[in-house]
Structure to design on (239 residues):
């Protein structure tokens, strides 16, 4: 189980995330939604220890998650990745294995097999020698999905994975997510997309600095909760 208790983050005295608590069980997909600047990415980064937390505890299997980061895969927002960096598809995915083989050793045969399988799973094996900058948005997202798979993590975090992707990529992603859930992994997905993706989630967190609502799609997406999280801007969407 993943347990987040009273998590708070301040950036130079400004509160970005306040008193966030939730739990997630193996095999569950948690969707994190909320308006721009609601602290969704910050919450994920804080859980992963990538930004300092001002208070709170994050535990996985009853121990501090910090001590178990090799069980975690994280796919950041596409905009946070330097797509001009000269690296091939194959090597991006192989990076997931460096924790197992070390940076300067030749990757082991099993690691090579794992990378190959992950790339095949997302339909990117044939493009393995391409530079990542030469891919479409959907293909880039699939490469990072393959990297997460090759890490064989127990906890997987995706920040806005559905942005700028094609239908084929979306279908592959939903398929892989379903498979990971069956394997008992915990998935946490930040998304702007208030459509199909939400119906796949077992639990939703509606965030605006604090948790506005948590529970099933039906429990969370009430007019009142949406108004509280998004304010009047959502009324414009409904016109
Ligand atoms: N490194 C940083 N330093 C200072 N403030 C930051 C930093 N990163 C984010 N913030 C601020 O913290 C708040 C939450 O930002 P965050 O990116 O976590 O929100 P978000 O919900 O992920 O937004 P979006 O949907 O636009 O990606 C915002 O007010 C943002 O300006």
């Amino acid at each position: 189980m993943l347990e987040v208790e009273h998590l708070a983050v301040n950036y130079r005295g400004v509160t970005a995330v306040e008193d966030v608590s939730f739990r997630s069980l193996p095999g569950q997909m948690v969707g994190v939604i909320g308006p721009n600047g609601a602290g969704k990415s910050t919450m994920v980064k804080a859980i992963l220890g990538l930004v300092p937390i001002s208070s709170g505890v994050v535990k996985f299997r009853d121990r501090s998650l910090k001590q178990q980061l090799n069980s975690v895969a994280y796919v950041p927002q596409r905009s946070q990745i330097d797509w001009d960096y000269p690296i091939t598809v194959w090597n991006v995915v192989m990076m997931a294995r460096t924790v197992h083989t070390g940076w300067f050793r030749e990757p082991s045969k099993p690691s090579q097999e794992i990378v190959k399988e992950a790339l095949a799973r997302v339909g990117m094996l044939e493009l393995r020698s391409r530079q990542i900058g030469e891919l479409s948005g959907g293909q880039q997202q699939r490469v990072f999905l393959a990297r997460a798979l090759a890490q064989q993590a127990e906890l997987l975090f995706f920040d806005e994975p559905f942005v700028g992707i094609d239908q084929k990529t979306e279908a592959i992603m939903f398929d892989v997510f379903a498979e990971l859930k069956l394997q008992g992994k915990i998935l946490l997905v930040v998304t702007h997309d208030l459509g199909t993706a939400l119906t796949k989630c077992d639990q939703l967190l509606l965030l605006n600095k604090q948790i506005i609502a948590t529970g099933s799609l039906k429990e969370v997406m009430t007019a009142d909760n949406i108004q509280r999280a998004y304010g009047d801007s959502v009324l414009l969407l409904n016109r």
Summary: The mean pLDDT is 91.
